[in-house]
Amino acid sequence: KFRRLIMAIASRGRNETQMDKNQTSHTSLPTEILKTIIEYLDEIDRARLSSLNQQLRSIEKITGHRRFSTVELRQSYDAPTLEVRTRIQTHLAQEKSKSFGEDDTAKGFCEFFKEASTDVLKIKEFIHGEAVPQLHRVLSALKLNELNYGITDENVFKQMFVLIKTFKQIKSVRINWNVAYTNDLIAKPLILNLPPTDEYTFISQHSQMFIDNEVLMHMINSSRTITKIICPFIGVTRDGLERAFEKVYRGERERFIEFPVSIAEHRAFLSRAYSSQYFERRKNGIKHMKSGASLSVSVRFNGGGDIVTIRHPRIV
Amino acid sequence: MVLITLVSSDEQNFPVERELLKQSGTIETLIVNMNLDDEDTDAAAMPIPLPNVKGDVLEKVIQWMEHHKGDPVKEGDNEDNNAEIVVPQWDDDFFKPAMYGSKHLELTVAASYLDIKNLLTLSCKAISNTFKGKTGPQIREEWGVPNEFTPEEEEAIRKENEWSE
C-alpha cells in the first residue's frame, strides 16, 4: 500500500513532463522546456526559430524574456499607433521595427515586452491614450541600464519622473530637452525634483538659462557619478563653478561633471582660484592639491559657452 | 552514509547517497513528506520508483549530481537573466556526446521532472547554444521540424523576419 502511494506521488506530472515516445525531435519537448530554451536565444535566433513551424511560432510569442541593446518608442500626437524600434547588437547592429495598433497597443506591447531586458530605453515622443498605465507597468518591469527620454512638455517630464522612480536598476538617465519654448518657472521646479541615479545627462540644442547654480547643484547631488549638461549656454555663474568643484574635491566619490559656462564666469572663477594656496595652476585650469581633483576649461569654437570639466582623480 | 534506492521505469535499481538527492526538488519533497530518511521506520528501506525516467538516463542524472554535490541548489523560478549563464567546461563535455541525439533531450526532460534546477538550466542553455547563428534550414534539420507552412505563409514570415537574415 505504501509503495503504491509513493508510486502515485512519483508519477505526478507524468503527462506534462514526458516527451512523446514516438518522437525524439526537439519539437516533442514539453512546452515549458522549449520556452526555457527559447529564453536563452537572442532575438535573431528566436526569429529564425519561430519561422520554422506554427508550434514554435506560438511558443516563441508567449515566451517573453526578450533581450535588446536598444528599445525605442515613438508615438505621434495624431496617431494612436505605438511604434517600437528594437536594436540588437551583434557583430552588426540589427534593427527591427514593430507597430502596435490602436486595438492591441497595450495587449500586444505587454506580450512582446514581458520580462524583457534592454541596455537602453529611448522614448522619443509623448506616449498618450488609455493604454499609458499599462505601458508604464510593462516599461517599469523592463531591466535596463539607461533611460533616454525626449521631453516635449511638462506632462512628458512627469511621465519620465514616474518611470525613473519606478525603475530599480536604472543607472543612467539622458534627458533630451526638446521643449520648443521653455518656461523657466515651470522647468526649474521639475528639474529640482529629479530623483537620484548614477548618471544624469541633460541635452538641449538651445541655451537653458533656468539651469542656474541651484539647479546645477541639484543635478550634481542627484547623480552619484556623472553629471553632463550639453547645450550652448546655461545660467551658472562663478559661484556655481566654485560649489561644483568643491563638491568634487571635498567628496570621496569618483565623479565627473561637465557643463558649459560663459568666458566671463570661468575667467572670474580661475583668477580667484589662481591666487589660492590650495590650488595648483594648470594649462587649462586648476588642480586641488590635497585631493587631486581637477577642473579644466576647453574652448568651444563653434558657438556656445566654453566647456568646464571637473573630475575626481579616481574617476576612470 | 544513508543510501536511498531509486528505481527507473525499466526496473533498474540505483542506490544513491541521501545527500545527493537534495538537488532534486521532486525526490526531496517525497523523502521529506513520506519520512523516507527516518532510519527508525520501515519507510527508510522503501525504494523510490521513478516511472518517468529510464535507467540509462537516470544513470546520467546521478553522474551529474555526483559531480555537482555540494553546489548551492536554486530555489524558486529561474530569475537569472539568461544571457549571462555560461555552461562550465565539465558540463559542456558531459552533455556533448549526447547533444545531437534524443539522449540529451531525455536528460533535459528528466531534469524537469525531477526538478533539478541547475541541471535543467545548464541543459537548456547547452541546447540553445547549439542553435546560435544557424540558418532556418540548418535548425529545421537539427530540430527535425517539418515544414507546415504554405509557400504564401512562408513568404510572409520571411518578410517579417527579413531584418534577422
From TrEMBL, chain A:
PROSITE patterns: FBOX. InterPro entries: F-box_dom. CDD domains: F-box_SF. Pfam families: F-box (PF00646). This is F-box domain-containing protein. It comes from Pristionchus pacificus. The lineage of its organism: Eukaryota, Metazoa, Ecdysozoa, Nematoda, Chromadorea. The gene is WBGene00109020.
TrEMBL record, chain B:
InterPro entries: SKP1 (IPR016897), SKP1-like (IPR001232), SKP1-like_dim_sf (IPR036296), SKP1/BTB/POZ_sf (IPR011333), Skp1_comp_dimer (IPR016072), Skp1_comp_POZ (IPR016073). Pathway: Protein modification; protein ubiquitination. Residues 156-165 have a biased composition (Basic and acidic residues). One of its GO terms (molecular function) is cullin family protein binding. Probable essential component of SCF (SKP1-CUL1-F-box protein) E3 ubiquitin-protein ligase complexes, which mediate the ubiquitination and subsequent proteasomal degradation of target proteins. Regulates cell proliferation during embryonic and larval development. Keywords: Ubl conjugation pathway. GO terms for cellular component: cytoplasm; nucleus. SMART domains: Skp1. Transmembrane segments: none annotated. PANTHER family: SKP1 (PTHR11165). SUPFAM superfamilies: POZ domain (SSF54695), Skp1 dimerisation domain-like (SSF81382). Belongs to the SKP1 family. Residues 145-165 are annotated as: Disordered. Pfam families: Skp1, Skp1_POZ. This is Skp1-related protein. GO terms for biological process: protein ubiquitination; SCF-dependent proteasomal ubiquitin-dependent protein catabolic process.
